[in-house]
Structure formats: C-alpha cells, structure tokens
Structure to design on (295 residues):
C-alpha cells in the first residue's frame, strides 16, 4: 500500500501478530503539498481516491490486519481557574497524548535506574517543587534537584508522545465565567482540529485526577460527543502510577514559565539559578518540549 503519487500512503495497518481481518481499518496517508497526515476508514475491497492538487490515484484495499489502537491522554493543570485568586495570572491545562502501541517500559526503567544511581529511589517527579525547592524536595540541595530534572529531560527526549496546552491569561478576563468560556472554546477547537487524527483510534483513555470540576465537565460534555469515539476514564490516576502524568506536569510547568516570559515578567531567582537564564531555558529545556508539540 505504498505509492508515491498524488497522496503518499504511508501506512496500511501492518500486523504485529496474526489476527483476524478487521472489517474496518484506518489507512494513513500523507499529502505531498500540505504534508498533513489523514486517516481514512476503509473496508476490505473498498476503492478510494487520494488527491492533493495532483491527479487522484485510486487504491483498493485487499485486506488489512488491524489491532485495537488506544490513545492515552494525560492531563495536568498549572495555576488557578478562579479569576479572583491573585496567586497566578495564568491558568493552563496540559495534554500529553501517547499511542499505547509504542512501548516505553524499557526507557522508563532506565529512567528509574538513573534516579537510583544518584540516591533517589521511588521518587515521583514534580517539576514545580524540584525547580523551586518546595514540598518533599525542599530537603534536597540545588545540585541534586538539577540532576533529577536532567534525568527527566533525558527521558522526555527519548519517549514518543505529543503535547499541547490550553492557556488563559486571566489579566484579559473580567470574570471566572470568561475564563471558563475561553477554556471551553480552546478545548472544542483542539478536538475539532484533530478529529481525523483521533479517528485512527478505537478508544481514548483519559488519565486525570478530576481536580477542577469545570474541566471534568468539559471533558465529559465535549470529548466523546464530538469525536464519537469511546472514552474511558482511568480510575485512581496519580503521577506515582503513570510516568506520562509526570510528563504532563513538566509540560504545564515549563509552559507556565514561558508564558510569564512572553508577558514581560522576569524569571524568579529560583528559575534563573535553576535554568541559567532565559536563553539557556529556551535552548536547553524548552526546545525538548517543542519537539513534541502538537501542530
């Protein structure tokens, strides 16, 4: 199912193990002109044409073996949703998406062994306390916290995932209701803008601790309704159990710092010491997250 004309068909659901032929499969095709990945639902024997400004080319599916594909979606927050709360100007929701077909167990074990080698066993990574020396990390010196952070950044560079954030600057919102409305609009736009990508999965499993009731309402109301894909909510999801929730926490924290810098706010003393200044933060840290950013 590979033919480099009109649209380039890059995947046809090649089997990992012998399975019965699925009556419906998803075929991924990358356009030449826009380089967008488009997933199309097809049946065995179905003909279809692909075109991206060139002459269309027809394909006939003789048979495609498909495994059930599940997308895991990990969600974390940074800031406070309430407009009247003065502790944070920004409110962010980070989304980290991972295809469960991509096994990361070996890389996660390497990460844990790396933490063991520096004397930190069974630690749950939490970006904010590590950067600012708060909570359970306040007893650790700066150098050790920096080494923990470097281990996590090494893991982020090696594992496959995509991420994005919904973000609101409460400085431009008069009320908490406006903050809620902006988050709702961004969530709908995120889902609608990637409906074709989501359509390649048969199930979406959401990992979220239901911290903000309003966000929980948005997820329940919009996700399954707008994608028509079964959505499962993982019970008892905590960062201790799921490494990608720790990654979502990292994404939210780094994006929060970036938004402050864009708004003209200076780095705090802790941030400056930890990252070595804005230029090193952008080049050494933020770039690794941007490599995974959802377009």
């Amino acid at each position: 199912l590979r033919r480099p004309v009109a649209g380039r068909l890059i995947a046809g659901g090649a089997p990992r193990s012998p399975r019965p032929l699925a009556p419906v499969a998803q075929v991924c095709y990358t356009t030449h002109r826009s380089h967008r990945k488009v997933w199309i639902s097809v049946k065995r024997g179905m003909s279809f044409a692909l075109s991206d400004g060139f002459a269309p080319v027809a394909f006939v599916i003789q048979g495609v073996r498909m495994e059930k594909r599940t997308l895991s979606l990990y969600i974390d927050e940074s800031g406070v949703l309430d407009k009247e709360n003065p502790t944070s100007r920004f409110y962010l929701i980070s989304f980290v998406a991972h295809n469960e077909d991509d096994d990361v167990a070996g890389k996660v074990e390497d990460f844990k062994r790396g933490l063991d080698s520096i004397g930190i066993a069974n630690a749950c990574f939490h970006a904010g306390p590590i950067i600012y020396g708060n909570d359970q990390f306040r007893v650790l010196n700066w150098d050790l916290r920096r080494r923990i952070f470097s281990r996590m950044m090494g893991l982020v560079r090696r594992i496959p995932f995509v991420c994005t954030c919904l973000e609101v600057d409460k400085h431009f919102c008069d009320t908490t209701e406006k903050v809620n409305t902006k988050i709702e609009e961004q969530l709908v736009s995120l889902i609608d803008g990637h409906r074709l990508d989501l359509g390649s999965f048969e199930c979406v499993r959401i990992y979220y601790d239901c911290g903000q009731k309003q966000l929980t309402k948005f997820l329940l109301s919009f996700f399954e309704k707008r994608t028509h894909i079964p959505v499962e909510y993982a019970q008892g999801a905590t960062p201790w159990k799921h490494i990608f929730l720790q990654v979502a926490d990292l994404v939210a924290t780094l994006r929060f710092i970036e938004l402050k810098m864009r708004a003209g706010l200076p780095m705090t003393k802790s941030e400056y010491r930890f990252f070595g200044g804005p230029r090193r933060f952008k080049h050494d840290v933020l770039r690794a997250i941007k490599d995974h950013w959802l377009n």
User: Anything to note?
Assistant: The chain has a mean pLDDT of 77. The chain has nine helices and eleven strands. The first strand starts at residue 4 and ends at 5.
